[in-house]
Amino acid sequence: MDYYIVIPIHNEEAFLKSTLDSILLQTIPPKKVILVNDNSTDGTENIINQYCTASSLFQKLNTISSTKHMPGSKVINAFNKGLEVLDQHYDVIVKLDADVILPTNYFEVICSQYQKNKNLGICGGFIYEQNNAGEWILNHPMDKDHVRGAIKAYSKACFKAIGGLKNAMGWDTVDELLARFHGFKIQTDATLKVKHLRPTGKSYNPKAKRLQGKAMYTMRYGFVITCIASLKMAMKNKSIKSFWNNIFGYIQAYNNKTPYIITEEEGKFIKNLRWTNIKRKMKA
Fold first, then answer.
1. Same domain, yes or no, for 266 and 146?
2. In the chain, how many domains are there?
3. Residue 197 DSSP class
4. For position 200, what pLDDT does the model report?
5. Does residue 129 sit in the same domain as residue 180?
6. Whole-angstrom distance, CA of residue 146 vs CA of residue 32
7. For all residues of the chain together, what is the average pLDDT?
8. Residue-number span of the structural domain to which 183 is assigned
9. What is the arithmetic mean of pLDDT over 132-153?
10. Same domain, 29 and 163
11. CA of residue 218 relative to chain centroid, distance
């Protein structure tokens, strides 16, 4: 199978080499890797230039989406710029972060999953992050069927059906909800252990704290589901402050009449799906 990789990159001097080396070691190499240098101010571009010179696999694209590292908008803006320079001759499109180390068989396994299941829409492994003792620990949401945004691989049919990636916080949740809306399956593979070199959210702007609640509003969760989801998140993060940040963000989006990022029909499907999952977990 042919797959393309697009990597949005902003000030990743410390991690980028490890990511690109892990791509070069893949047992099934990609057809092309677009390295989107998004307004980096460190030595990131020099590293990109080195790899583009050493291998025709890599292609550089310089762009400026914004100066602030806000979740959602900045990374997807950069991703979409990279997407524009690619043709349509692919089976799988991959959005990859610039601070991960992939196992050498990562895309061999991903491609085999797509070949076995023609209805598979999104696939990926699991993220591991290093704790203070230097141990690599699984860092994953409570939903083990969710593929983390750092390592998303989409079938071409699924990617087209969901209309690409939404330029908003929550893009890596709504993509899977819309994939299910269009009849595609989501699959994770626990054998694919990806090392994430920088813990999620460490470089986010402080204003990002309330964007999760805003995202839940724009995905038409409704207030009750938002409260339940926010409470689960607060318990996972062991931070009641994150619960109130989410609720405040939701209410603020409601008061500002922030536009939804999905249709009313999609919203009804998502609500029903969320309630079904909530009820299933309550019975378990």
1. no
2. 2
3. S
4. 58
5. yes
6. 26
7. 90
8. 3-196
9. 86
10. yes
11. 17
